[in-house]
Design goal:
With about 150 residues, the protein is mostly helical. The chain is built from three helices and no strands. The radius of gyration is 26 Å and the shape is flat.
């Protein structure tokens, strides 16, 4: 008599070898193309960051108020642009190395940097949208108080 008290998944996949994700040549070419574009945008972000640093330097040497503007400009935009540029650069270089050398560990690390890039950008978008909403509410409240009952 057959034993009917087995778990539902007891025999599934027992004789089947583990299937690994395999890249076709089309996917490999697309990954290489994506890494090239990501490298282009990362370098572009670093160039913009250099222009911001250059402008902040000139603002800092222009006087006491310029020093404050330069520090704020460099601090705010420097942080907001450096991390996405760095994450995109690491994604591009590691993905290219992983595909070229067919190394899954390097490719995994490259995609981890892409995840970090999108986490940073997503968090930044949420913060900026919240800030804009706060400004909108404050503006409506101020307009209501300024012009009477709205």
């Amino acid at each position: 008599m057959e034993d009917m008290n087995q778990p539902l998944d007891s025999g599934i996949g027992s004789n089947v070898p583990e299937q690994r994700l395999q890249f076709t040549e089309s996917v490999r070419a697309d990954l290489i193309e994506t890494s090239k574009w990501a490298m282009f945008f990362a370098v572009l972000l670093f160039i913009v960051l250099g222009f911001i640093a250059f402008g902040a330097f000139f603002a800092m040497v222009s006087g006491p108020s310029g020093f404050f503007v330069g520090v704020v400009l460099l601090g705010l935009y420097g942080v907001l642009l450096f991390f996405p540029a760095w994450y995109y650069y690491k994604f591009a270089s590691l993905t290219r190395q992983g595909v070229d050398f067919e190394n899954n560990q390097i490719l995994d690390e490259g995609f981890a940097y892409l995840r970090r890039f999108y986490n940073f950008v997503g968090t930044l978008v949420i913060v900026l949208l919240s800030f804009y909403l706060l400004i909108l509410v404050f503006g409506l409240f101020t307009a209501g108080n300024l012009f009477g009952n709205f």
